[in-house]
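Quick illustration, no need to memorize.
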Amino acid sequence: MKDTPGKRRPAGYRPGIQSHREEGTIFKDWGGRLPVALIYPNSYFLGMSNLGIHAIYRILNNHPMVVCERIFLEPGVKAPPVSLESGRPLSDFAVLAFSVSYELDYFNVVRILENSGIPLYAADRDEKHPLVIAGGPCITANPLPMSPFFDCLCIGEAEPILPAMLPVLFEGIGGWRQGLLKSLAALPGIYVPGHPPKTVARQWAASLDDFATTSVLFTPDTELGDMYLIEVERGCQRGCRFCLVGAAFSPMRFRSLDMLVVQAKEGLHYRKRIGLVGPAVTDHPRIKDLLDALNRMGAEIAASSLRISALSGDIIDGLARGKTRTITIAPETGSARLRRVINKTISDDEILEVADRIAAHRFHQLKLYFIIGLPTETDDDTEDIIKLILKIKNTLEERKSGARIVVNIAPFVPKAGTPFQWLPMAPRETLRRRFSLLREAVSRKGVRLNEESPAWSEVQGVLARGDTKVARAIADVKDITLAGWRRAVEKNHLDIDYYVNQRWDTARPLPWSFIDSRTGVERLCAELERALRQ
């Protein structure tokens, strides 16, 4: 069988609705190739909106000696998962490669392995079993809570790591497992828990132009199904002290304008709408030129979260001409003092000026992102969020823009590798009270409010600052509910207070201190001190 995108399927395979409605699916003959299962531990709907899945699928299938097929975990499905491309179970693959974007998906990793009859703990697997590996931003920041389950974990970006891994896998996958693990442990960016080095250096791609990070597969069965996604930039140089992006994806790198234009022209063969992806798209030095080029092509434009201070009139006009429907900005808090604490130095006046520019155009929706429970936050800071939201709403109404306001609120969760990694979360009752203040004040004003659960955010906090002790509780969650988590915590005598509510001593080594993220602990400590002086 030839390696063809989207036309032929293996004989006898009856595809599910997702693969049946896809374009671009890659089918390869397994003969003589290394079979890799690319596993996203959540639904197809979410996974296929993740540009990282597209990128890894392309990298692996571009290698002539690899066949890569995808596996997802659909809600409520208890049957053993099988690959979309050929319907094969996990046990048929030589390598199971998990791409993990969110800590709460750790529970789904356990469910996938257990439903497939694969021993959960790496210590219980040998040459008869697939090699189980993982990567992703939360794994890069702190692999320890999941390390007992994986043979090796990738610290950094896939583009530099996978090409170095594949020759080692080709040579050693069928042989002595410990020999293979020892060889993998010698590679940059690979953490093998059974062969721990003193440090593991996070890896990143030096040039984004060397890798085409765009949509590969097209499906209506996903949130971003009407777009061709293009990665504009990676990383962020703004230094927000709570944010994992700087820890997992620095330094900031930009794709060249020429490459972006070529990719957009290619994308218009598949979709009318071009989605510009990156944590700080408007920081691209040629963003105005890019928007102008897309508008000349007749493309419709969508963009991920936009930095407020970069939203000039020209940029907003370029987005409007491209029929952008939603503008997303992240003030994070309504208090100027608290914005200084998190190192987001924008004023209310700047935010309202941008809101006025947005209101001058006919965008359908303005999304605002805020965080509750930030270090040193008080109830007065919550009141400031309310005031800012209502001022923005008034600005839009005065302009008769017609745009709907959607406010997304999430509790602060300290993340490994950030200046706030030593700090506790706000108590759950404090978070609930502040959520209630917000809800009562803005919902009656016609503002839609989306809230992340304080209780589940607390679970996320345990996983984000966890060590190998947390793995036992993760493994013992038999039903993925708060009650199921609490039972597992109680069974394993896990000290939740330590992981969530305690401020850690900056003089003590952190569990993940062996990860060299290229941002020294001294710099992180200095940033923490600056924050707490505000």
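Residues 1-15 have pLDDT under 50 and may be disordered.
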